[in-house]
Predict the 3D structure of the following.
Amino acid sequence: MNKIKFMLFTIAVGASSLFGGVYNVDASHTNVAFSVKHMMISTVNGEFRKFNGSFELDDKTNNLIALKGEMDVESINTNIAKRDAHLKSDEIFNAQMYPKVTFVLDRVQGDKAYGKLTIKGITKDVEFDHEFGGTITDPWGKKRAGLSLSGKIDRRDYGVTWNQALEAGGVVVSEIVKLNIEIQGILKAEDDF
């Protein structure tokens, strides 16, 4: 019986290590979203529709050890064309001068991920809640992994300061922006390197 348990353990450890390596972000199954309070009473949601990135899992533990991503500011979408144009303008993100938002992971500790977020050429340390979704082999034989990051930033830290005061008090747009990123990646084949 002990031999059988040992064999099952060996198979399980071996199987988990099969998913270590570098993954390319699968844009069709990934969402880079944000939300912000509007007029102090409701929440406006948005996303970046164009982005790319990759992440790496440890060969033995499947722990996240590297992650980098780049979002195209011109692809920002809140489902209102006029608002999207304002977000891309020099009053907010200034997409012409700063076309990309980037994130690079520094480290993961437990369920926290720490890294550097760059917006409008300003880089700040950020902390995200991190959840590893697991790994699978899809029906076409591709190895996939999923993870999520969520947190919040103060947009003023990145020079995104536009706002308007409300007559009744408060402001049109909250300074705090919530980020919610759901990532699925496909393991890079050796011939992709």
Notes: The first helix runs from residue 2 to 17. Residues 4-16 have pLDDT under 50 and may be disordered. The two ends are 43 Å apart (CA to CA). Helices lie at 2-17, 81-88.
